[in-house]
Amino acid sequence: MSADTADAAAPDRDYEALGLVAGLEIHQQLDTETKLFCACPTEAREPEAATERFVRYLHPTRSELGEIDEAALEESRVRRRFEYLAYDATCLVEADEEPPHRVDDEAMETALQVAALLGMEPVDQVHVMRKIVVDGSNTSGFQRTMQIARDGAIETDAGEVRVADLMLEEESARRIEDDEDGVTYGLDRLGVPLVEIGTEPDISTPEGARAAAERIGMLLRSTGTVKRGLGTIRQDVNVSVERGARVEVKGVQSLEDIDDIVRTEADRQVALADIAGELRARDAAVGEPTDATDVFEDTDSDLLRGALGDDGVVRAVRLAGFDGLVGREIAPDRRLGTELSDHAKRHGAGGIFHTDELPAYGTTDEEVAALREAVDADPADAVALVAAGESTAEVAIEAVADRARAAVEGVPEETRGANEDGTTRYLRPLPGAARMYPETDVPPVDPDPGDVETPELLTERVDRYVDEHGLDSDLAEQVAYGERMPLYERAVERGVEPTTAAGVLESTLTELRRDGVAVDRLTDEHLLDTFDSLADGDLPRAVERVVERNAEQVDTEGMGAFSALMGEAMGELRGKADGEVVSDALRAAIRERS
Amino acid sequence: MTAETDGAPSTPAPGDRVRVERDGTTFEGVLLPSTTAETFVVKQDDGYNVGVDREAATVEVLEAGVYAVDVDGEAAGSAVEVDDDLPTVALISTGGTIASTVDYRTGAVTARFDAEDVLRAVPDLAGRANYRGRVVANILSENMEPSIWQDLARAVAEEVREGADGVVVMHGTDTMQYSAAAFSFMLDTPVPVVFTGSQRSADRPSSDNVMNAVCAVEAATADCAEVLVCMHATTSDDRCALHRGSRARKSHTSRRDAFETVGRAPLGYVDYDDETVTFRREHRERGTVDLACAPDLEPEVELLKFTPGMDIARLEAMADREGLVIEGTGLGHVHTDLVPVVEDLVDGGTTVVMTSQCVEGRVCDRVYDTGRDLLAAGVIEGEDMLPETATVKLMWTLENAEDPAAAMRRPVAGEITDRSVPWL
To answer: Which of A79, A83, A123, A163 would you mutate first to test chain B, the one with the most B CBs within 10 A?
Structure first.
C-alpha cells in the first residue's frame, strides 16, 4: 500500500468539512395480501414451479413529436427477446394480457401510513403514471407509479432530514437468467407493491446517512406491512463532495453498509479530485487510440492470448502525464485503472492492461517498451490497452479514453452499483428525466388520510416491552425489530409469559438454527401450538397457586369456593387455557385439599 | 380559483406552466385538462401528475401556453421511398389504435392513421413493400356501421384496381370479425385482404401492434386471394394466425390471442422470426378470381339471442325487419311457445335464420320436435355459420341474391363447411 492509499483510507476524515452532501432513495416492498393492480398474492415462487412460459419483445414508443426516448432506443437497438415465467401466483394482469385492476386498498393505506409517519402531506388526488422501462423487467414496457405525498421530514441524531416525496409503485419482475438469447424473468414479483421514499440532500456525514436510513427503515417496519428478507428493501444513495460530483449508488442491500458506502464513495471522489489536480499540474492529456497488435504478436502472456482469441487486436491509448496515477488506489483494492476497466467491460471487453501494472501477467519489459514506443509515450506517460475482437476493441478503447479524459476534469457524474465489500462500480451515466405518461386504465384515487391509523412505532414498542412485559432492553429491541414480532404479540396475547415467548423466538430458534435445525420450516402456527402446550404445563402450577393463596376460604367452604376461585384461576392463566380444563384442575385441587 | 398576475386577472388554462400552492406545499408544472371540476391536475417537472383541490389551492401562471395541449397530431413528414422490386400494399385505416402515439408531457394518446404515420410508428414495416395509405373512417370499432363497410369495400376494390398487390385493413378489434365477414361476401378479390389490429394500445412498448402489422403485410404479399384476419396466435410474440374472414371470432376480452377460427384450426400462420407465411389448407390462390365488388347491404337485419324467460314481445317486434338471425340453444332451438311467432314472422316476409349460441358446431333442426316445428315454420338452418357471420351474410344476401333463403344455405365465402373436422 502506498502513502496515497493510506491517506485515502483515513478513518477519521471530517466529511462535513469535505462538503459531503448525501440523499437517500429507499425502496421497500410491502407485505400486502394482494398485488398493487391485481388480486394475486405477493408470494415468491421458484422458477421450477412455472406453469407457463411465453416470449415477448418490446418496442420503443414515440412521443408526440415523433421522437423516441434515447434511453429506450439504446436499450432496444439490439432486438432483445424476453421470456416470462407464469405461476399459480400470477394472472393475466402480470402477463400484460388484462387491464390492471384498481389500486389495491391495503397498499394505498400502508403508503398513507408511511406518509403520516414521515410527516408528509398526502396529495389531494393520486394519479397513476406509466414510467417507460424497456429492459423487459415490466411486461407492459412501463412501471406503474404514483406520487402519494410530499414534503415530510424525519429527526435523526445527526439532525433533520427532509423527505421530498413518497411514491407507491409496482415491483418489477424477477430476473432469472440472462444469456445471449435474451433475458428470462419470473412474474411472481411483478406487481408487488413498493413504496419509494426520496429524501432531500440534507445528509452531511456517513453516520448521518445510516441514521436516516435506519430511521426510515424503523418507520417502515412499524407499519407491520412490509416484506422482510433479502432484496425486499433496496437503498440508493446519492453522494457528492465539494470537489466531486453527484454520483448515484444503486442497490445497497443492507442498512449496515450505508455509512461504509457513503464513506468509500466520498473518499473515492476525494482521491479522484486529487488525481485530477495532479494531472492538471502535469498538463496531462489523452491521445487518440492506435493499433498495437504487432507489439504482442508473439507474447507469452496467456491472459493476453486469451483476450485476443483467434483474430483479436490490441488497441492502445497514450495517457500523457498519467504515469503512476492509473495504478493509484482510490478505494480499497480499486484504482483509477479499475474505473477505466469498468468502462471497457461495459463495452464488451474483458478489461484493460495499463503500464502502471506492467510488466506482469506474463508480459515482458521488451513488450512494454515496444508498447510505449507504439503510442509515442514518454516515461511520464501511461498507456492503457484493450485486447479483444476488432469491433469490441475499437469501442472499448474509446470508452477508456473518454473516461481518462474525464479523469483530468475531475469526478464524473454517474450511476454506480454497490459492491458487497462496500466499494462501488460504474454502471451507466445518470438517468435523464424519466418519461412518464398517465396510466389511463386506472382511475385516480382520492386518498383519505383521516381513515389511516398511525401505527405504534417500533421504538415505542421497545419501551412497552420493557415497561409492561418486563423484557430487558436488548431483548425488547431484538423482538420488536425482529421478523417474528407479530408472532410474539400473538403469543403474549394468548397468555404466554413474555420472557418465555421472547426467549423461544429470539434465542432458542437461533440456537437451533446454528445447530443445523431447519427452523425456517416452522410456521407461525407450529410455534403457537408449541406455546399452547407450554401454557398447559403451567396450568397445574397456576391452579395450585390460586388454591394456596385462598387456602383459608377453601378450608372453610370446600367446593363452595369453586366459583370465586375459577375467575381468579382464569385470570392467573390470562385466558390462555381452556375453561373446562381449568375447571377440572381447580375441582381436583380443591377436592385434594378438603 | 383565479390568479392575479401584474394586477390583471388571468384564468389558468391547460398548457400553462403554473405554480400551485396548497397548505404550504408547492406543485410546479404544466396544467393539464382535468376530468373533474374539483381538482387541478398538474404534471410536475419530475413527470408525476397530481390532482390538487381547486378550492384549497392558489394558482399562479408562470408562463401561459408553454405547451399546446390540443396537439392535432401533425408531425414532420417523412418521405416514403418507392422500391420497384417490392410489392405494393395498400394500408387502409378505419381508426383502430394500431398506430397511435403518446405525448409524454400531457400524457395524451394521439391516434395515428395515415400510411406515413403507420410507418413512423412501426418502422419494422419498412423494406417489406411499397405502401399506399388511405383513411376511410376514423372511428372506434364499436361504432362500426354497415354503411362504413360499403365505403371500405369500395376503397379496397379501388386500391386493388389501381394495382395494389395486397391490402391491409387496420381495424379495431371489437367488431373486426363482422367487418371481415362483410368483406368476405362483398368482395371477390384476386389479392389478399388482411384485417389486423392490436389488443394492447400502440402507445405501450409491449403492444402487439408491431408484430401484427408486420405479419399482416407478409400475409398481404403472400400467394393468397382471401379475406383474412391476422392476429397473435398465442400470448407469445412468435407467430400470427391467419383466420378466414368468415369464420373468425373474438373469444377473449383482452388477450393477444383473442381471435380464433371457429370449428377449425386457422387457415395458416405467419412466423414472426423467419417471416414466412404457411397455409395449412387449400385456399384461393392469388389471381384466380377477377375483382368484383357487390357492396349493397340490407341494414334491416337483427341478431336475437334466445334466453329462457325471454319476453315474447321481443320476437314479435321483429315483424318489421327484413331479416332475423336467432341465436338459439343447442342444435338450434327456442321455446316452443315462440314457434308460432316465428311462423308469423316468416309469413310476414322476414327471412329467419337459426344459429346456435354454442358457437361451436352445426345447427340441425331435424333431430327434435322443436326443431322440426321451427323448420315447418319456415326457419332456415344456419348450418355451422357463426351467428355474427350469418347476420352479416343475411344483410348481403337480401340485396345480392335472387333467392336469399337458398343463398343462406349455400357456402359463399367459406362461412359454411361441408364437413365438421375441428382437428384440421
So the answer is: A123
| 8 Å CB contact of A57 and B256 | no
- Stretch 351-380 of chain B: residues touching chain A, C-beta under 8 Å: none
H, E, C per residue of A115-170: HHHCCCEECCEECEEEEECCCCCCCCCEEEEEEEEEEEEEEECCEEEEEEEEEEEE
Name the B residues in 181-240 with CB < 8 Å from any A CB.
200, 202-207, 210-211, 234-238
Whether B174 sits among the annotated catalytic residues: the reply is yes
What whole-number distance in Å separates Cα of residue B286 and Cα of residue B299?
32
Containing H/E element for B229? strand B227-232
Of B88, B173, B351, B391, which is the active-site residue? B173
Contact A92 B255 (CB under 8 A): yes
Q: How far apart are CA A100 and CA A456, in angstroms?
A: 33
Distance from CA of A199 to the nearest CA of B (A): 15
| Three-state secondary structure call for residue A486 | helix
The predicted model gives B46-59 an average pLDDT of: 89
pLDDT of residue B73: 41
Confidence of residue B168 (pLDDT cuts 50, 70, 90): very high
Looking at residue B312, its amino acid is: I
First vs last C-alpha separation in chain B:
67
Whole-number CA gyration radius for chain A: 31
DSSP A324: T
Active site residue B43: no
Does residue B6 carry a catalytic annotation?
A: no
As averages over each run of 10 residues, the pLDDT of chain A (594 residues) reads 43 86 96 97 95 92 52 58 96 97 96 95 94 90 95 93 97 92 94 97 94 94 90 93 94 88 94 96 94 90 85 93 95 94 90 92 91 93 93 92 95 92 87 75 90 89 92 90 86 82 85 83 79 68 83 87 85 71 81 76
Please tell me the distance in Å from A505's CA to the nearest CA on chain B.
44
What pLDDT score was predicted for residue A568?
85
Residues of chain A with Cβ-Cβ distance to B51 below 8 Å are 123-127, 444, 446
**How many Å apart are CA B260 and CA B248, to the nearest integer?**
6
Best CA proximity match to B350, nearest among B408, B405, B406? B405
Indicate the pTM of the whole model: 0.82
Contacts with A261 (C-beta within 8 Å, 6 or more apart), sequence order: A237, A239, A249, A252, A418, A422, A424
Q: Of A167, A134, A146, A148, whose CA–CA distance to A56 is shortest?
A: A134
Q: What is the 3-state secondary structure (H, E, C) of B151-193?
A: HHHHHHHHHHHCCCCEEEEECCCCCHHHHHHHHHHHEECCCCE
Angle subtended by helix axes A524-549 and A579-593, to nearest 10: 30
pLDDT of B252 reads 97
Q: Which three cell numbers stand for residue B135?
A: 383513411
Query: How many A/B residue pairs have CB atoms within 8 Å?
Result: 145
CA A126 – CA A108 distance, rounded (Å): 10
pLDDT for res A2: 40
Residues in B touching A140 (Cβ below 8 Å): 204-206
The question of whether B250 is a catalytic residue gets the answer yes
Q: Is the dihedral of CA A360, A363, A365, A367 positive or negative?
A: negative
Residues of B in contact with A59 (CB under 8 A): 124, 205, 207, 210
Asked if A63 lies within 8 A of B103 by C-beta distance, the reply is yes
Closest residue, chain B, to A91 (C-alpha):
B255
SS3 assignment, position B267:
coil
Query: Are the Cβ atoms of B102 and A63 closer than 8 angstroms?
Result: yes
For residue B312, give the C-alpha cell: 315474447
B42 contacts in chain A (CB < 8 Å): none
Do residues A20 and A201 touch, judged by C-beta distance below 8 A?
no
When mean pLDDT is compared across A128-137, B115-124, B259-268, the lowest value belongs to: B115-124
CA-CA distance, A425 to A272, in Å (whole number)?
A: 14
